[in-house]
Amino acid sequence: MRIKVINPNTTEAMTAAIGHIAQAHAASGTEVVAVNPARGPISIESFYDEYLAIPEVLKEVQRNESEFDAYVLACWGDPGLDAVREITHKPVVGIAEASMYAANAIAPRWSVVTTLKRSYHMVEHAVQKAGLHDRCASIRCVDMPVLACEQDPSAIIKGLEEGGRLALQQDGAEAIILGCAGMGGMDEKLSFLLGVPCVDPVAAGIRFAEMLVGMGLQTSKWLTYRAPEVKERKGME
Amino acid sequence: MRIKVINPNTTEAMTAAIGHIAQAHAASGTEVVAVNPARGPISIESFYDEYLAIPEVLKEVQRNESEFDAYVLACWGDPGLDAVREITHKPVVGIAEASMYAANAIAPRWSVVTTLKRSYHMVEHAVQKAGLHDRCASIRCVDMPVLACEQDPSAIIKGLEEGGRLALQQDGAEAIILGCAGMGGMDEKLSFLLGVPCVDPVAAGIRFAEMLVGMGLQTSKWLTYRAPEVKERKGME
Amino acid sequence: MRIKVINPNTTEAMTAAIGHIAQAHAASGTEVVAVNPARGPISIESFYDEYLAIPEVLKEVQRNESEFDAYVLACWGDPGLDAVREITHKPVVGIAEASMYAANAIAPRWSVVTTLKRSYHMVEHAVQKAGLHDRCASIRCVDMPVLACEQDPSAIIKGLEEGGRLALQQDGAEAIILGCAGMGGMDEKLSFLLGVPCVDPVAAGIRFAEMLVGMGLQTSKWLTYRAPEVKERKGME
Amino acid sequence: MRIKVINPNTTEAMTAAIGHIAQAHAASGTEVVAVNPARGPISIESFYDEYLAIPEVLKEVQRNESEFDAYVLACWGDPGLDAVREITHKPVVGIAEASMYAANAIAPRWSVVTTLKRSYHMVEHAVQKAGLHDRCASIRCVDMPVLACEQDPSAIIKGLEEGGRLALQQDGAEAIILGCAGMGGMDEKLSFLLGVPCVDPVAAGIRFAEMLVGMGLQTSKWLTYRAPEVKERKGME
Amino acid sequence: MRIKVINPNTTEAMTAAIGHIAQAHAASGTEVVAVNPARGPISIESFYDEYLAIPEVLKEVQRNESEFDAYVLACWGDPGLDAVREITHKPVVGIAEASMYAANAIAPRWSVVTTLKRSYHMVEHAVQKAGLHDRCASIRCVDMPVLACEQDPSAIIKGLEEGGRLALQQDGAEAIILGCAGMGGMDEKLSFLLGVPCVDPVAAGIRFAEMLVGMGLQTSKWLTYRAPEVKERKGME
Amino acid sequence: MRIKVINPNTTEAMTAAIGHIAQAHAASGTEVVAVNPARGPISIESFYDEYLAIPEVLKEVQRNESEFDAYVLACWGDPGLDAVREITHKPVVGIAEASMYAANAIAPRWSVVTTLKRSYHMVEHAVQKAGLHDRCASIRCVDMPVLACEQDPSAIIKGLEEGGRLALQQDGAEAIILGCAGMGGMDEKLSFLLGVPCVDPVAAGIRFAEMLVGMGLQTSKWLTYRAPEVKERKGME
CB distance D58–C50 less than 8 Å? Predict the structure, then answer.
């Protein structure tokens, strides 16, 4: 099984780290190919960044599409997920959805701890779109930029520990979701520090993609996710 | 007051028509400037189209930003609305939101009639994001492409009449929202045919923008809609 | 365009102030006529007050109905709104609905700051009826009576500032709605003090009424808002 | 135990019938006093009727308040319920709420069958305010005026049977709520015709009031339902 | 009228206390028969306890079924309620549902105070299943085991007072529901201490059962609550 | 990896079939052990059946608990799921949850087709508990008993095809979930007949269990799912 994991930002070190984590969590027999677009923002921290990144993500999906069995979008906002499902039959997984499903299975309520405060609303929207706001105890932020995950991981872990502890003690959470692909690999340490299971979103994404491929499922082309109409797209393609 | 109305697709005839309708419905003293991106799909009929169009829409917002008092996104999916609110202080209006607010004021429940069947889910998402699913009696489709609004308007009106009548008689609607910017200007005829008020989304958009400008409001820069972080965006800008 | 703004309470000084604010925020070409019933409570601070006021409000709507293009109910509970829509074809606007729509356009979440604590539930009901509880970060109260808006405006502003600051810092609000018609005109000062946009409900009401009239919309008479049945109403009319 | 049942309309024959049904369903030891205002509409079929009736209902509550143990509002819209709870410590019951609670106990989903089609939205609002829209399979209407309950009961029963059968066979209902106080006493016959339990709203109201009195409960005066402020109410009282 | 009150746990002293409270709150003419299963956990404090108890509760319902007019399940999780409704035509009442309905009638929002912290999620589920989460201000716990209600009632009352006061002062509650059958009879004292009405769940259960019997209602056998299919149940019956 | 799949009913032929399907869909390296209780109903078709089965299911979980890595409850009602999570640290998966998560990834809306009509409410409750009612287009029933899956599979497939077609054509579904463990293995044929992906719940269960084990997750023991209190459970254990 070959799964393409797409980091929507253009920071190659982060792509390499995500690929490493994904391969480490994948089943034997799964080959992970981690890529990122050549163009676009070095991190996704605003709706502006997200929308600039999506067309480049779509190109990464279309490149050598026949060689892959599934796609994982490695950014907690699940950017462009609906569009990706239109342009391929293969299962497409967003790490936000995948990590919420995993958390649902091990705790009645959980919290998401993410990076910047300004991402609060973006995370909230992802939770509401998934219909899981009753399961989400709170959204907390470490208030550090996404790239700090690469550049200062111990500060991120400290922030996760503080945010996670407040979520457990004040908000009613019983498990923690790491709300950024850059936090992939920090689940074990955080789980040790907090005493509750922590969900690694990259691991959830790769494993959920394996689940769908293993079940032989493909995206429904009945109506909404049909291939886009053939038409002129000026200056594109 | 100068308001820039952005048609996210690249069909100039449609932009001209939208600009005409918007100016006709604007208050005296309001100058409408209707534009469309040079690059991108000739119509927005899938999530794929939408995401390809958004970065070009963002550029249209940034161009001569100081000369305008407000922005109207003239596509019923309100594409990129959150991102536009990050890159300008001026009020930004999506025609979906604006037309639902107008409909709420004149009927307890209303239906949206849009173009292609595949857009059902996109319209549903816009309604749910606005929190107004309890007010939406149904979503119906004329099952014709967006550009038929320009090329075969009488067929579109016939489809609107049929869909609207079913919405009134079977679904519990008491008013109709035209669910596509290309339907701008068809409200009067449809209202005559159906005997209920019909909401023109382009008119709603321009009038709602005027309302916000008239109130002296600007987009909150407290947290979520702050300007995007200064950072490298490879190959862009 | 002539718009009748109805203050449901019987305090004429408040009516004058509301009329002044409404006219100041109206477009040029709009004539505001502010009235209040001769009978009824001097302020609306309970459901009891509200229900006593409504029949008098209905009479104000019926008086010289042909001379007006729209109605604005200038009380944050939108008292009797459904009934007013039955007895006139003209658009009818409640300031609660109008100010929430304006706030939605400039912030992802907002708080309402109102007068008495006992009005908490009334405000909550207005928010829920509008389907916007997910957008409402909190409801806060300055804990002073409605008429303090006229008699001690600086104390009200101080209370608004305190409540607004808590809403921004603790509750996740990014804009503030003034939750009482008597607070009309205080938005500018409060906005200066807090650093976020504040929505003046009287301004929102008059501008939303202009929007609907400008669009040529009338209340749907399809079913729910048909004229009341002709029947005996003992001792009335 | 003495319970005052207030018919908000001014049709004395209907009041007598409601009083008769209420007494017939009351526990031994309960004295029912059925009254109606002297002023107001002869039937409640619009929001306009409802709001005209409420101030007169409030006066009926205040008259000899010390002589009663509880109040029942005998109209399916529960008109003025919040205000009545402000002006007395005694438990106050709306027949809409009471009949939905009874239905919840005997069926997973139920439908409400009411009189005029235009009341659909009013019933829907009562259901939503009670938080029970997931339990409500549908709202159906016999499309006859309220007073037909007195003047042509066999036609009403025929309409209830037709509407009820559709609710059971098409909408997923498993019990029927009679959605008008005037339908009091028709539950037994309808239940025989349809083969499912039917909830008589007058019986539900009187029995729910007995339940609250029997439990020794009074309306909370902690905040929302405190007595209205002492103030001038011009031309009133 | 004979009502069987079933305490699902096997602590006979608690059954006796519940029976005493139920009889004290019942109408004259109602005979209460309080029972508990011979097998099963001595208290219900986990889902595990609950599921072990339910089959024994079902047997208690089936025993001498013809001699009773209604059933009350005296545990705040309403264990097995759906199944009990399948095996008898008589009305079946859960004390959770009954006490929430009573609280709705006397306060806009209320809190539930229960025993162990681990029961938080179980109480939350009961509230959500009833559709009443918007009415529930909070769930608070005294953090003592269920049997402390029998063995150390003064400590329980102290905990209820503390939790109740926080609910009133911080959470927006205006009434308190005692969230455990073992707290039956503590409502009066707590109400005196807190100054708001407190709902005794045992009293609510017995009175709600009387209401349904008094209305002549039986459980709908239309579909969901039909008698279970005749089939082999190995090693059972 | 060893996963215990528990068929809650006592029909061994069905257990064998479920085990076969589960093993066929499992990853290489996963060993499936399918069991059923010795006592209890031969099929789960009512709440009564469900509650009788759960204590026996709990014993199956406790038997040789150290030898397994995860548990799958193979009945679409996810019977006793919360309790199982209390008595083991290992991940526990219900096939209802697992199949809804899989369906979410491949279609915007899906329908569940189950066996008996009376199970409608049980399926609805599972969907609502998962927070996914907005994703569920409809619930349809083939109206045949559970054991027909073993005894007359071609009739079940015919019923699935009819129900599925109506779901696609009338209800807005774009994928189908097989709503009974006994339907395991029918997904491929149904998918061929209908032209949309169909979710096999047994496959979903086993693959979701593998996902959780692969991620190294265990059930949170922070609060709700702690081990049940040590106490006397009369006549048990």
Answer: no
Whether residue F58 sits in one domain with residue F110: no
Instruction: With CA atoms as reference, report the closest residue to B104 among C212, D120, C72.
Output: C212
Statement to judge: residues B191 and B111 lie in one domain: yes
F81 and F105 in a single domain? The answer is no
Cβ of C118 within 8 Å of Cβ of D55? The answer is no
On whether the CB atoms of residues D97 and D125 are closer than 8 A, the answer is no
Same domain, yes or no, for A9 and A61?
Answer: yes
Q: What percent of chain E has pLDDT over 90?
A: 98
Nearby residues of C56 by Cβ (< 8 Å), 6 or more positions away: C8, C37, C38, C39, C40
Of residues A129 and A23, the one with the higher pLDDT is A23
- Stated length of chain E: 237
With touching defined as 3 or more inter-chain CB pairs under 8 Å, the answer for chains E and F is yes
Mutation pick from F99, F211, F212, F219 vs chain A, by most beta carbons of A within 10 Å, is F211
> Over the stretch C155-172, which tens digit does the pLDDT of each residue have?
999 999 999 999 999 999
Whether residues D116 and D161 fall in one domain? yes
In this structure, the answer to whether residues E104 and E35 fall within a common structural domain is no
CA quadruple B3, B4, B5, B11: dihedral sign: positive
Same domain, A103 and A52: no
Instruction: In whole angstroms, give the CA distance from residue E104 to residue D101.
Output: 11
Indicate whether D231 belongs to any domain.
Answer: no
Q: How many CB atoms lie within 10 A of CB D117?
A: 16
Report yes or no for ipTM above 0.90. yes
pTM check: above 0.90: yes
CA distances from E83 to C126, E77, F176, F236 (A): 39, 14, 28, 22
Pairwise CA distance, residues F142 & F74, whole Å: 19
In degrees and rounded to multiples of 5, residue A73 shows phi and psi of -90, 115
Helix (H) or strand (E) holding C2: strand C2-6
Measured in angstroms, the CA of C144 and the nearest CA of chain B are apart by 26
Nearest CB to C102 within list B195, B217, B225: B217
Give the number of B-D residue pairs with CB atoms closer than 8 Å. 4
Contact (CB<8Å) F109/B128: no
Residue to mutate among B135, B222, B223, with most C CBs inside 10 A, is: B222
Comparing CA positions, the residue from E193, E133, E188, E132 lying closest to residue E168 is E193
What domain range is C6 assigned to? 2-95+204-214
- How many structural domains is chain E composed of? 2
What integer best gives the mean pLDDT of chain D?
96
Q: What is the dihedral of CA B185, B188, B190, B193, to 10 degrees?
A: -160
DSSP assignment of E208-226: HHHHHHHTT-----SSTTS
